[in-house]
Specification:
Length: 285
């Protein structure tokens, strides 16, 4: 028997008044894919955002609950074992922090101006008006932490970063398991440099976070330990108590598709500054 497939979407939005320096809004998207006359199913996606009145950053909401962190297959030992982690709800920046936003922190005398104001192929990048909404780069871990503190936020923990990128279905990339392409992310050196933040809406994560694979790698709050996953706590892991390097996530414009997977871990000494390295911030709910 032939069946008619119907997809119906209902969008419910709620805009809230400013609260504690943020303007919040909610979006509920209900998808009803149906097969008449018998099959009916519904998938509910809840997306909430709020906007900082300090730096104008839009943050996306990540609900509390479990997700799979790490990866059991592959040659890299620091990704294993795959394990279940439980996190409290939190908010994370929708995109990487931009040149213009970082400049606001410099103007407020809460951040140091980047010593290197270039990018890979651009001589005038940090101070170039045409690159105001591109991710700030050449930022050390301390620079990034200073910015997040000024903005009323913190660097995300490694676990927070991975959940915001990966969701709860153990996907390989923020958008799912589909192979990367130039319509989803800036990777594998097609342009030889960064692009404007938010340029790939089709590459959004389950919660609406953008640019979490490619464009620039991102600092996290955690110290790095290759074997940390073997002993890390199940609930709200904060990383090792001390270390030599900090954990970096996300891959960059120069990384191939294997190195922009959401479970890939990098490590860099905190004073590292690179034209492939930026950051985003997070905050508790």
């Amino acid at each position: 028997m032939n069946r008619l497939h119907i997809s119906v979407s209902i969008i419910l939005g709620l805009l809230c008044l400013p609260v504690n320096g943020f303007i919040t809004s909610s979006l509920v998207l209900v998808n009803y894919p149906t097969t008449t006359p018998f099959d009916v199913s519904a998938t509910l996606t809840f997306r909430a955002t709020k906007t900082s009145e300090i730096d104008g950053m839009v943050l996306v909401y990540v609900p509390a609950g479990d997700f799979t962190m790490g990866f059991d297959r592959g040659s890299r030992k620091d990704m294993a074992p795959g394990h279940s982690v439980t996190l409290d709800s939190f908010w994370i920046d929708k995109t990487e922090v931009t040149n213009a936003q970082y400049a606001m922190c410099v103007s407020a005398k809460a951040c140091d101006e980047p010593e290197d104001k270039t990018s890979h192929n651009r001589v005038k990048y940090y101070n170039g008006e045409q690159y105001a909404n591109f991710p700030v780069v050449n930022i050390s871990w301390n620079d990034a932490a200073d910015y997040c503190k000024w903005a009323g936020r913190t660097l995300p923990t490694e676990a927070q970063w991975e959940k915001a990128a990966r969701g709860t279905d153990a996907r390989v990339y923020p958008w799912g398991d589909k192979m990367p392409s130039t319509s989803l992310t800036n990777f594998n050196n097609p342009l030889g440099d960064t692009v404007m933040t938010g340029s790939y809406p089709d590459g959004a994560s389950l919660y609406g976070a953008l640019d979490m694979a490619g464009n620039v790698r991102e600092w996290t709050a955690d110290w790095y330990d290759e074997t940390y996953y073997k002993t890390s706590p199940k609930e709200n892991p904060q990383g090792p108590d001390f270390g030599y390097k900090r954990t970096v996530r996300g891959g960059s414009w120069g990384d191939d598709m294997s190195n922009i997977r959401v479970f890939i871990r990098w490590s860099m000494i905190p004073i590292t500054r690179s034209n492939e390295l930026g950051f985003r911030c997070a905050m508790p709910d």
